[in-house]
Design goal:
Layout: E1 8-10, E2 31-33, E3 54-56, E4 78-80, E5 101-103, E6 124-126, E7 147-149, E8 170-172, E9 193-195, H1 208-213, E10 217-219
Parallel strand pairs: 1-2, 2-3, 3-4, 4-5, 5-6, 6-7, 7-8, 8-9, 9-10
Length: 220
């Protein structure tokens, strides 16, 4: 395969098995797609991509990601890590303070990766289809978060710290064994959509009516 010459490098669904060596010479690229390539590991060499704005490592077989991802100072747009076998993320990824979209869905997380709460520019966070039993109070450290997707986890409630997420528009809690929701959710000023479908153990709280009354769509 001959190396392409644009600043956008896509090797999507090539069944590569490993990252070709020439990729690491393309230090000028702004987007890199390595999705769906049967990758079980990736080299710790991402720090050379000083202009990279988007990285897609989704739909592989990764059990860990290298700490050099934290050196991607220009990573602002998207980081896709979904549909892998990740159970943790390196703490150093908290340095991705410019990142706006993160997808860690369809992995093996049973504890929420604390480093994510250091990604203070996140607008959208997708962590659906994992084994999460709780969220840390530090989730409240994401002041710009607008969408929080947590479908099909093992959550029984959310922390009261969610009240600090004043920019939240959407919360997806479908398919969780919820037994309680904190009333502070009703105080989120910009909430537009709350999805509570497929949560049969939850006695729906009366304060949901206040969300209905102000135009927030509550799926039950």
């Amino acid at each position: 395969m001959s190396p392409p010459t644009s600043s956008h490098l896509s090797l999507w669904k090539q069944r590569l098995g490993r990252v070709p060596g020439w990729v690491w010479d393309r230090t000028e690229i702004e987007t890199l797609v390595l999705a769906d390539n049967e990758l079980a590991e990736v080299p710790d060499r991402f720090g050379a991509f000083k202009k990279l704005r988007m990285l897609d490592l989704g739909h592989n077989a990764l059990t860990q990601v290298p700490c050099s991802l934290a050196d991607l100072d220009s990573l602002t747009d998207f980081l896709y890590l979904h549909d892998n076998r990740l159970a943790s993320l390196p703490a150093c990824l908290a340095r991705l303070t410019k990142l706006r979209y993160l997808n860690i869905g369809e992995n093996a997380f049973d504890m929420f990766p604390e480093c994510v709460t250091g990604m203070v520019s996140l607008i959208e966070l997708r962590a659906s289809v994992n084994r999460l039993t709780c969220l840390p109070d530090s989730i409240g450290s994401l002041p710009h978060l607008r969408e929080l997707h947590l479908r099909n986890n093992m959550l029984t409630t959310l922390p009261d710290a969610i009240e600090t997420l004043k920019e939240l528009r959407q919360i997806d809690l479908r398919g969780n064994p919820l037994i309680h929701l904190p009333p502070v959710i009703a105080e989120l000023p910009r909430l537009e959509k709350l999805d509570l479908r497929w949560v049969p153990a939850l006695d729906l709280p009366a304060w949901l009516e206040s969300l209905d009354a102000r135009g927030c769509v509550v799926y039950r």
